[in-house]
Amino acid sequence: MFPFLRSVILAxxxxxxxxxxxxxxxxxxxxxxxAWLYSGSDxxxxxxxxxxxxxxxxxxxxxRNALPAGTVSIRVRIGAGALEERPDERGxxxxxxxxxxxxxxxxxxxxxxxxxxxxxASFGADTNAFTSQTATTYVLDLPRKDDAALNTAFAALSxxxxxxxxxxxxxxxxxxxxxxxxxxxxxxxARRMQDISRPLLFAGLRAETADVTGTDATLSxxxxxxxxxxxxxxxxxxxxxxxxxxxxxIAQLEALxxxxxxxxxxxxxAPAPVDYGKPVVPPVASAVLVDPQAAANITLFWVRAHxxxxxxxxxxxxxxxxxxxxxxxxxxxxxxTRAGAAFLASGAAFAEGRHGADIMQVGAAPRAGAWxxxxxxxxxxLADIDANPPTTAEIAREVAEADExxxxxxxxxxxxxxxxxxxxxVQATDEGDxxxxxxxxxxxxxxxxxxxxxxxxxxxxxxxxxxxxxxxLTTPTxxxxxxxxxxxxxxxxxxxxxxxxxxxxTVSFADLAPPAAPGRILSRTVIAxxxxxxxxxxxxxxxxxxxxxxxxxxxxxxxxxxxxxxxxDPARPAPxxxxxxxxxxxxxxxxxxxxxxxxxxxxxGLSVGLDERAINYTGFTNQAALVDxxxxxxxxxAEPRFDAQTLxxxxxxxxxxxxxxxxxxxxVAATALPELFHGGDKRFAWPTRDAIAGLTPESYRAFWxxxxxxxxxxxxxxxxxxxxxxxxAVATTIGAVPERPQLPPAAARLDxxxxxxxxxxxxxxxxxxxxxxxxxxxxxxTGGLADVAETRALRVAADIFQTRLFDRFRESxxxxxxxxxxSAMSLTQPTYGIFSASxxxxxxxxxxxxxxxxxxxxxxxxxxxxxxxxxxxxxxxISANQRALVSNPYWQGLLTNDxxxxxxxxxxxxxxxxxxxxxxxxxxxAMAKWIAGKPALRVxxxxxxxx
Length: 947
Description:
Radius of gyration: 29 Å
Structural class: alpha+beta
Shape: globular
Distance between the termini: 51 Å
Strand content: 15-25%
């Protein structure tokens, strides 16, 4: 679909409910003030939002929204991020974000998370915070709307903004956590990339030296007094925006904002305006980064000063024309990639940076050793943009995509969830934008379409790449001549002549032969527990269709093929990593480009995944396109092209990125743990370099052909669907294909088992920072349907375990950034389950982590949790499950499972109530049975072997 500008994304959903009458009491203390967001803009404001300003200068945005029902989403945005920090304060905005959860005048250290949990909100998923270059935003998605819960939540949040304790002991502990997060999010290779790219992109701007994660020196120098100085300077009511969206009357939301934020007063004088700088051309406009673990990439940048003027309809029309041109550039780059260019992937993007710069970038991933040829091919495409305007057919294709995107957003606007709407308002504030209805942006786009002539769109395309670019080459091996040679090659490449572009062509679904006659229905039943209709066709295909009200004009179709992983030999590695190349390579008469032309401007999609029991083809569509979506899925399974060039690009990319995957602890863990956790089952093994390089087009085709040969055995259609029409659609497509034999897999392949614990830790090696490590302690359990009550007790135990580990290892010791406890138990494999504790940390803290895990494990198994701990764990689980029941992803997962398993039906029927019955005794018993005193598997992902 058309990846629209932020302003279109902001129009994603809008309700048309009338505004509630304003409370007279609130009206005396606050004033409706849409100007704070819409000042200078002629774009009509969205009437569903009430904007206002309190007497202390705090701005607010309120909206009533009933999805999810009974919930409220709150965002508190402080207009201070990395750009507001002084040179000796690098990382302070982010450090303060952490510290505000460490205690306030009214909430002791460690109690904030417990407050959220008692209100049914989990820390991390429902409550969190994030710091950017421009702001720090605090997030709370509250699953309750009663007065007591709302007042408790608002009191805690407002206390964080104005009464943070910033106690010295907590600062010392949290410093370790902030450093651990920095190590996790910005490993050495990423740091080197930042160091070389910032001067290139942000010369002249404050952003050149701004750093959200800080430096060793500034973070080490942070004291309570220095942090408080930053806090007092920027945490002020006039620098805050409170956004509240939820299933509550707007007058009540306004009263909450006034009650809890209206008495907030600033400390000290207001800060002086920040000089964000202006972009200048750097002395050297190109750079080369050599890193043995990095894949090769060429990126060209065109940097312009950001336009900080308000968004207007005229400006938005121009932006639409520019984005249309960028889409055409992307399309041409993709066509060049597929035609055998010297690069494996390519793309273009435009990003606007408030208080920074607007940057157009065009990039390509060269084939190994071919950076100069890739640069030549890249400039051949860019030269064509300079030399020739786009064709009317190119523009029409992108306009059709855009029209469909607008239709989708317009029909979906009443289904927007409160968290999404709250985030969009924050995003608009960040970017100096406005929010408006989908209808408003559709009208502006319709006006812009008349202006999208080849001349106008061509001028926009030339405009974003005008002038010499700044350029960055990353390469795993040094290039001859280094940076001067790269700079010289850039100059030479700008003289390249225009490359020939792919010819426009017309494709149609008529190129796919329709079935001769509708398939015969053998049976039709209703699964009452799921309110779903089940239809069996004579060719062996089963259809499950369910109408849901959660997403208007949106249908998800999943087609299950064959037996998936269960069809593979556990003793033999398999090239399952190549599955993505199958649909990407084209279908029947359509190569990849023709397939994109076929689906342009229509709600059609195609993706593929592999699970334990099936290869799943999925598409998102609507009622109008359902038949063609089914034809597309049917052809994808029956007529894959197995394109050799597509496979070649995938192989080359995998090989070139192989070392990068092994350069971080997380990459090594992701590579090794699937096989390790499945007891050495080779179906889950990450391929070796030789295995990737050795996969030929012939062996690739030979591997996937028998796995796809059984054809589609089940179709699940879910969403805003007409059930009778869906049955007819399947009957004339997938239900009408010839019957194919369905061979059940061997029983042994249906019984995956976890690892067998060993005494000594398993050592894995990464090639990055030697100080960084991952520690994992894991125990085998069993399948999730063996004893559902016990399964739930282990899930609750994992959440309690995580809270305790968080309190001890992170909050009290500063030992790691994100310790994670998980109880994963399969619903399809009868004996597969794993209970695990893991964290990324510094290598010298591994023993401390393992000791903390052991202590918590033993205490939970002997003393058990407190009733409060159980309540704080089950509350967020129940809230999450209640939300899941009114979402299509939950139903999609459920209906693709075994529909005849009574245990699974009981799980569904008790999804909420089942967790209300979990007791401290049940948690203690589950821990004692499966975890305490049982041998565990310890995994340590360490840096390079010093030997």
